[in-house]
From TrEMBL:
InterPro entries: Flavoprotein-like_sf, FMN_Rdtase-like_dom, NAD(P)H-dep_reductase. PANTHER family: CHROMATE REDUCTASE, NAD(P)H-DEPENDENT FMN REDUCTASE LOT6. GO terms for molecular function: FMN binding; oxidoreductase activity. It holds the Pfam family FMN_red. It comes from Occultella aeris. One of its GO terms (cellular component) is cytosol. This is NADPH-dependent FMN reductase. It comes from the Bacteria. Residues 5-123 form the NADPH-dependent FMN reductase-like domain.
Length: 181
């Protein structure tokens, strides 16, 4: 069996964020033989749009951009754990996408929103961004406060673990299809 390397992105940089707990729980649902890493965008520390040329040029000069590119390219796929802030997604994850260009093309990226209303608005908006950069967007379940998790990030019994495992199945199938194409 081939091991697949999947990065799970914590897409909030707020000091009071619960994204790390959500990302760890998502990682715990990974099938055996899958190598998962947590990528905390607060630790990645990308400056906002610091490159002198557009990302589509591929001429990266900033050490942070080069490191981010290398890190993204090391994964077969990503899962973004996405909160909803004021009906949108965090700026730090938009910057992480906008900093690169070619790295996103055909990369399978799952979305798992969390928050009040399961972060449906931010997941929809972020999905549109992934479509624009030609990533292979795979929509996962949304996690609702009070139903699936607490506002402190503790998972409840009703959390859709089976749906998250189903997202992994879709991601792995997409990775395999990409390899054989």
């Amino acid at each position: 069996m081939t091991s697949h390397k999947i990065g799970i992105i914590v897409s909030s940089s707020r000091p009071t964020r619960i994204g790390t707990k959500v990302a760890r729980w998502v990682g715990d649902q990974a099938p055996n033989g899958t190598d998962v890493d947590i990528i905390d965008l607060a630790e990645v520390g990308l400056p906002f749009l610091a490159e002198p040329e557009l990302p589509s040029s591929g001429n990266y000069t900033q050490a942070s951009t080069l490191a981010w590119s290398e890190r993204v390219r090391a994964y077969d796929a990503l899962i973004v754990t996405l909160p909803e802030y004021n009906a949108g997604y965090p700026a730090v994850v938009k910057n992480a996408i906008d900093t690169l260009h070619a790295e996103w093309s055909d990369l399978p990226i799952g979305i798992i929103g969390y928050g009040w209303g399961a972060a449906a608005g931010s997941a929809r908006q972020f999905g549109e961004v992934l479509d624009r950069v030609k990533a292979l967007r795979l929509d996962g379940p949304g996690l609702s406060f009070g139903q699936d998790l607490t506002p402190e990030g503790d998972m409840l019994d009703a959390a859709p673990a089976d749906e998250v495992r189903g997202l992994y199945d879709q991601i792995i199938a997409a990775v395999r299809e990409k390899v054989t194409a």
